[in-house]
């Protein structure tokens, strides 16, 4: 919560006071298999009390939102289908955290790299994803992902205190793709919300963006994602090392 409050005045520089970073789950998404999204990385920090997502773009590099990598106690997990998998999974430790040089809390530059101290072991549920050089088309459908709906009925045993215990995904529609940011809206109230930060936004098998924020703090409204294509050259210089 401290990080969220600290970021709000800075986010106003880009979208007035309309954008809130998201530290929670996908609303009304469907349960997803990690084998369908094997590039999804699970980031834990602040003593595992807060979570973000990320995308594996190289065996030792994870791409995520810049506001997700402010803490030294950051660990990365891969192949996570359920939250309970984290307890039994091997964490990858971080050698270096790199925020985009222009990042000052604005969603426009809310992108960062996590350089790991060891290489990720790839397999059927752990793979890398490529980054396109072009933005997604207006009106096209993209997929967002994260851990669950904001709330669940008592009969749903997969949810606890509003946090889904399984990876979920949803399709949303691109309504703008300028100013370094992609914005989307969902149908049937599909949306990202407050833990989804930094998680992949994909089209086909390409990483078109990273989840960054929501408009007016309203998870049912417009969502904002960092456009990966805008940062292709910056990312590439680290990929070549």
UniProtKB/TrEMBL annotation:
GO terms for molecular function: serine-type endopeptidase activity. SMART domains: Tryp_SPc. One of its GO terms (biological process) is proteolysis. Residues 26-240 form the Peptidase S1 domain. Transmembrane segments: none annotated. Keywords: Disulfide bond, Hydrolase, Protease, Serine protease, Signal. CDD domains: Tryp_SPc (cd00190). Residues 1-16 form the signal peptide. Belongs to the peptidase S1 family. This is Trypsin. It comes from Oryctes borbonicus.
């Amino acid at each position: 919560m401290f990080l969220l409050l600290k970021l709000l005045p800075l986010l106003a520089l880009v979208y007035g006071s309309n954008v809130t970073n998201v530290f929670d789950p996908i609303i009304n998404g469907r349960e997803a298999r990690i084998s369908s999204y094997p590039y999804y990385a699970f980031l834990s920090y602040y003593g595992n009390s807060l979570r973000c997502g990320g995308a594996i773009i190289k065996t030792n590099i994870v791409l995520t939102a810049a506001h997700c990598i402010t803490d030294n106690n950051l660990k990365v997990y891969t192949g996570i289908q359920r939250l309970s998998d984290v307890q039994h999974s091997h964490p990858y430790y971080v050698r270096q955290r790199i925020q985009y040089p222009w990042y000052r809390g604005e969603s426009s530059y809310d992108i960062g790299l996590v350089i790991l101290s060891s290489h990720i072991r790839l397999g059927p549920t752990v793979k890398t994803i490529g980054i396109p050089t072009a933005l997604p088309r207006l009106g096209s459908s993209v997929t967002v992902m994260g851990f669950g709906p904001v709330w669940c009925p008592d009969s749903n045993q997969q949810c606890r205190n509003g946090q889904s215990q399984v990876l979920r995904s949803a399709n949303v529609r691109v309504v703008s793709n300028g100013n370094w940011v992609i914005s989307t809206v969902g149908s049937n109230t599909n949306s990202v919300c407050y833990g989804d930060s930094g998680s992949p936004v994909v089209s086909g098998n390409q990483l078109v963006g990273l989840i960054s924020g929501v408009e007016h703090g309203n998870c049912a409204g417009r969502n904002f994602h960092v456009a990966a294509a805008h940062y292709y050259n910056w990312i590439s210089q680290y990929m070549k090392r």
